[in-house]
Amino acid sequence: MRVSVSQIREMKQRGEKVAMLTAYDYATAKIVDEAGIPLVLVGDSLGMVVLGYESTIPVTMEEMLHHIKAVVRGTRQAMVIGDMPFMTYHVSVEDALRNAARFIQEGRAQAIKLEGGVTAADKVKRIVECGIPVMGHIGLTPQSVHQLGGFKVQGKTPEAAIRMLQDARALEQAGAFAVVLEMVPAPLAALITRKISIPTIGIGSGAGCDGQVQVISDLLGLFTDFVPKHARQYAKLADIIRSAVAEYHGEVKSGDFPTKEQSFSMDESILAELDK
Ligand code: KIV
């Protein structure tokens, strides 16, 4: 059985921290799942760290579905959460419902995530009423990067801090099972965490959240365009890959690869016949 919404809620009640990671492909998802990570997000960060877009805005439903399916195939125990792309849940509740349902029905994800608080609450409510678990996302919402004027810390003014608490409460009331707090000052994130009953999952929002989420490409040192301040590199995969590729390149050129070990033999008499 996969991790359930009620198990995640119970973790907050027990004071047990929740670790969440992104994954975008079968092989990585399998490793993350085997490591026991309970929440695997197929984030629309896919657009930047896998597909090479400048932001998450160009990501489409079809691109997300393609990767959600791979991640679901790679996982057994984790709850797989599909991230709704820009403009797939903004226009109407009907649109939001139809697209959320595609993630669950076609993608086989167990939950969806969408950005926004008070303004998204009506969609969250309807999606939850239809039996689809929803994770909210407030603070820095990358799909609104042009409105926010960049990837900046949010909630620093009194008005913005009040709005953020209202957003968190609106998501809780709408039935979201958890909420991502991205780039929120640590003391504000801790306060929101105390004020709402659903788990807060922080990214760049300090240790006072109920859980943490990271983009796996940042954590593994695989994405090298920039390293966010909130990320810790637990490995430097780009360096490992670079030196492995250089070694392979050199060995192909020198003739050291392949050897007999990577080759296949056949009956010599057949060759002798051919060579006559
Ligand atoms: O798209 C994503 O990976 C996300 C996480 C950073 C929370 O939304």
If you had to describe this structure to a student in words, what would you say it looks like?
43% of the residues lie in helices and 13% in strands. The protein has 276 residues and is α/β, with parallel strands linked by helices. The protein has one domain: TIM Barrel, CATH 3.20.20. Strands 1-2-3-4-5-6-7-8 form an 8-stranded parallel β-barrel, surrounded by 7 helices. The relative contact order is 0.11. It binds 3-methyl-2-oxobutanoic acid (KIV). 3-methyl-2-oxobutanoic acid (KIV) binds at residues 22, 41, 43-45, 83, 137, 180, 182, 203, 213, 215.
Instruction: Work out the helix count.
Output: 12
Shape designation: elongated
Under CATH, the topology can be stated as: TIM Barrel
The CATH H-level homologous superfamily: Phosphoenolpyruvate-binding domains
**Straight-line N-to-C gap:** 63 Å
Strand content: 5-15%
Query: Domains counted in the coordinates: how many?
Result: 1
CATH architecture: Alpha-Beta Barrel
List keywords for this structure.
276 residues, alpha/beta, TIM Barrel, 8-stranded parallel barrel, binds 3-methyl-2-oxobutanoic acid
